[in-house]
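Think of the structure tokens as a kind of shorthand, similar to the way a musician reads notation: each symbol stands for something richer, in this case the local conformation of the backbone. In the example below we present two proteins back to back. Begin with the first one, reading the sequence and then the tokens, and try to describe in your own words what changes along the chain.
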Amino acid sequence: MKKMKLAILGFGQRGYMYANIIKRYPEEMELGAVCEINPVKKPFIMNMYNVKEEDYYTDYRDMFKQGKIADILVISTMDQDHYDQAMAALDLGYDILLEKPIAAEIDHCIQIRDKANELGRKVAVCHVLRYTPFYQKIKDIVDAGKIGKIMTLSQTEHIGYYHYAHSYVRGNWRRAETSAPMILAKACHDLDIIRWLIGEQCEALSSFGNLSYFKQENAPAGSADYCYKCEVECPYNAIRFYNSHRDWFMIFSLDPDVDKVLRNEAISYGRCVYRSDNNVADHQVVNMLFAAGATASLTVTAFSNEIHRSIKIHGTKGEIEGDLEKMEIIVKRYGGEIEIIDVKALASDFSGHGGGDVKMVVDFVRNLREGKAISGLTDINNSIESHRMAFAAEASRRDRGKVIKL
């Protein structure tokens, strides 16, 4: 069996996840090189993953000067960086595992797709929800006709109040112009799942949403600019959060002293959530019309206690409801028995996006090793559709819900 060599470009939370999956399959894959711009992380990465000095880079351009040094390049950098890095990597001959979103502009997404097709390269976009046992089971039920034809579908992404504060108020995705709109950066996953389950082209959509809460005028009386200066009781207290979520804290620093790091006012993660420079929506709805008449809605909200996704599908012969984190699917056939499916009984590994991360990486590696076309679940030619929908949704939101035809 040929062992596939992977290089990881960008070692944040997602890069860390990919490295751990590679480590789990030593007979099939190996980590050949790492490029990470943050120098603080270098000792940790080199020691934990046995990366040699000559295989470690801090600038992707220096790594690319070496030519193609691995079979697969994982691009898990910031959204705005994807276009330049993916286009250059395709020219070097890489097949790519590309984090979503494909790029921060629709024209760039299309150019990456077109270049991959022109050069015969394989690009898988990390729409990992398609690989989860949860959504695969729902897809099986729908395709088997158990609930008839889908008439309406509604999905809600409950981001979680603390996740939203970390990523979209204080974090790297807080400003659309330096990352991507929230509906693209966070919810192209959900748009992709909706499009996949319905199995038709989205013909038109509209969207409403805005930044309503995480603004200066909502700051509690007596609160301070930074959490370490503040005495107001608040669920968004950064010091308390990062003390209890060390794995999130390592994304921007490996220093174990949370209080000390957050006292550095150059670090945005200690900033009051009401006094940040964020500008992306904190809640948004998207309404969609599909080719054969089915309608769908997506709600994305910062305002939830837990991080989870829930779905409800109404068909002509029955309905499906489920919750990804509860790992439960309920099928109700009209006039028939109610079936409750325990998703935990369908697989043994639910790590990383309900088991989707591992299955996606392994599928891509095995198909490339065997010289076959990838399964198509997250091929860029499929994933481009959800990106068109996300960009259209953001345009509609900015135009007060204008209907946009696709």
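Once you have a description of the first chain, move to the second and do the same.
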Amino acid sequence: MGNGRRDSDEHYVLDLCDDVLGTAGIRQHRFDWLRGDPSPTTGRQVALPVDAYWPALGLVVEFYEKQHSEAVAFFDKPDRLTVSGVHRGEQRALYDQRRRDLIPQHGLTLTVIVADEFTTRRGKILRDPERDRAVVARRLETFLG
């Protein structure tokens, strides 16, 4: 039986990033300037997490699985609207774009690694650490000494 998030493809890829970069990134980091839309009832804006952040490198990595590019029933509840007044899939696209816009505006580099860059079966990475590390190293080569 798996451990959920620790066994996830996201965790696996971010661990490979740590290995390639030789230092551990901060998982699910939140910047005060990267916020979701305000709640229509409270006005509260939640700080949006990034998948991983390496402060010394000025690097943010986002790992995109299929829910970032297509509707996935598990994530997209069609009968519920989000605080943004849109369905979850639309909100995810809005927030992904917000990350792509704001992260570079704050002097950081955003690298997006897409699950499709790896060998997958039924949407899951077929783990081959040597091959997968090479995929990650190509995406992060500008940060390597």
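Compare your description with these statements about the second chain. The chain has a mean pLDDT of 87.
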